[in-house]
Amino acid sequence: MVIFCQILMATVYLLSAILKLRELSAFRAHLISTMPDVRPFAGFLAAGVVATEIGTALALMVIRPAWIGFSLSVLLLVGFTLYLVAMLRTRRGASCGCVGDGGGPISGVHVTRNILLVMVSGAGALLATGMGDTPAFAFYFSLGPAVIAGALLLYLDEIVSFFKMAT
């Protein structure tokens, strides 16, 4: 189960970072539009967010003991969630910035998704404290479902919107 949590969370961070990198200038503009005071260092902040996401993904998969990577993940997600809550209060029509500048307007779905991701990271940290080495077959068995679950959680708001449109 630890390896599943590691792969899921690493997928979320890497996919999010890649999507931000593809349009880094758009992500920078998003940061400026949602936090005008960061304009002088928005480029540095945008690159820092991407680097932090990549670093957290690597920490989840490489650093031992594994609870360290999960702890970094929880801290990062708490920061992102506080940003989302602040945006919900002040800039409701803005994109969340979770996957760069794309995505729909921020909603409670984004906050809910992040809370679920905090729970996955927290569970991984707790499980990792009692684990020894993980057999290789567990990694290969967990890889596919964890990548799919991570990608689905990252796009939870679009999935919810899809089902709202269908009704």
Please characterize this protein's 3D structure:
With 167 residues, the chain is mostly helical. The chain is built from 7 helices and no strands. Helix 2 packs across helix 3.
Present the secondary structure layout:
Elements: H1 2-22, H2 24-34, H3 42-62, H4 67-90, H5 108-128, H6 136-154, H7 156-166
Helix pairs in contact: 1-3, 1-5, 1-6, 2-3, 3-4, 4-5
Give a short synopsis of this structure.
This protein has helices at 2-22, 24-34, 42-62, 67-90, 108-128, 136-154, 156-166. With 167 residues, it is mainly alpha-helical. The protein starts with a helix and ends with a helix.
Radius of gyration computed on alpha carbons? 16 Å
The chain-level structural class is mainly alpha
Order of helices and strands: HHHHHHH
How confident is the prediction overall: mean pLDDT? 84
Q: What is the number of beta strands?
A: 0
The percentage helix is over 70%
- Compute the separation of the termini in Å: 35 Å
How much of the sequence is in beta strands?
Answer: under 5%
Unreliable runs, pLDDT <50, ≥5 residues?
Answer: none
Principal-axes geometry comes out as globular
Give a quick account of the main beta sheet: strands, pairing sense, barrel closure.
Answer: none
Q: Given the structure, what is the number of helices?
A: 7
